[in-house]
Structure formats: C-alpha cells, structure tokens
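hi got a favour to ask and not much time before my train. below you get a single protein, a line of residues and a line of whole numbers that encode the local backbone shape. could you go over both lines and see whether the tokens make sense for that sequence. a few lines back from you is plenty, here it is:
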Amino acid sequence: MKIAVFGATGKTGILIVYQALNQGHEVTAFARDPSKVTIRHTHLRIIRGDVTEMEMVKQAVTGQDAVLCALGVEKNKPDTTLSEGTRNILTAMESEGVKRFICMSSAGILGNDAGFWFGRIILPLFLNHIFEDKKRQAEVIKASALEWVIIRPTGLTDSPRTNTYKINPGVPTSRTVPRADVADFMLKLTTDKRYDRTLPAISSH
C-alpha cells in the first residue's frame, strides 16, 4: 500500500512512518524539515514542504492509497495551521482521487470526553487555542465526502507498543496511551472500515 504521512517528524508521525515501512508499505513523509526524518529506507520518499503550500501537498498526495495525518502544534496561541493545513490535504486528495484519510486529533475535542481535570482545568488554562483549531480541523474533515476517521487519543506516552489498547466511541477508558499504539491503530484503519466517518477514542486498558 502507498501511504502519505503528514506530521511525519512528530513523535507519533515518525512512529507511523517506521511501522508502515516495517509492514512493507511505500511511505511518503511530508515534512517542513526533512532532516528530522531520521529513517532511511528504499520504500521511503521524503517531500519537503508546508501544509499551507497546496502544490507541495498535492505532490505528496498524488498516487497514494491512504493519507495519515499526525499534524500538531506546540504553542498555545491563536492559529489555524491544523484546520487550514487539513483543508489543503483534503482538497488535494479530492482533486487527485485519493479517498482514505485517517487523522489523529485528541480526546477533549468533543467537550466532555477527556475527564473533569483535563476538560475543566488543563484545557481552558493551557490548551484553549490549540483545541479551538483542533475543533475546526474536525469540522473540516466531517464536511468532507472522503472516507475519514478522526481518532481521539488520551495523553500520549513514549511507552512501547502494547497492541492491547481500547477503542471507545465516547469517553476514553484511561488517561494515557502509547504513541506506538496510536500509530498501530492508524495503520490498521487504512484497511479497516468499521470506524469510517466516526471519532473513536483510543486509550490503554
């Protein structure tokens, strides 16, 4: 399978790239700074670009079987990178006839799905701007006619992959989940269509 990964230099994105290559897929990694993609592989193509640049996005999307998005922003300030970048990706996919889009968002985007402490304390004080754009990103995706899944992981950790994670339509069952498990689930969703057009939560048991 041919897979494009946006956000390939992030902590989760690089795991998606690594696992996809291990599974025998052909991977296109889209990155502002290609030097941060530390993997070298005969089935890996790296495209330098910004998600705001439509022509570069289109170049990454052309000919793919699926597009996986693990874009993130680090600073909590007013920003539209996630929503506008995702809109560019979806527009490019539609124009190039690529139908499958799997996006990592976050628990908390539904307003009541991340627990009291996170939803009422952490999010409003420290992550409000980031989550406003995550919500806009989700609306952009939901308005698309593509085959999409938006996953909502809880707190991401660097623990090893467990393969025993829990998928839940509503509130997550725990506060954390390894990034490696998130990457595993996103790759499974390239062919597993049972969650299409939904926003499942992923968390540890």
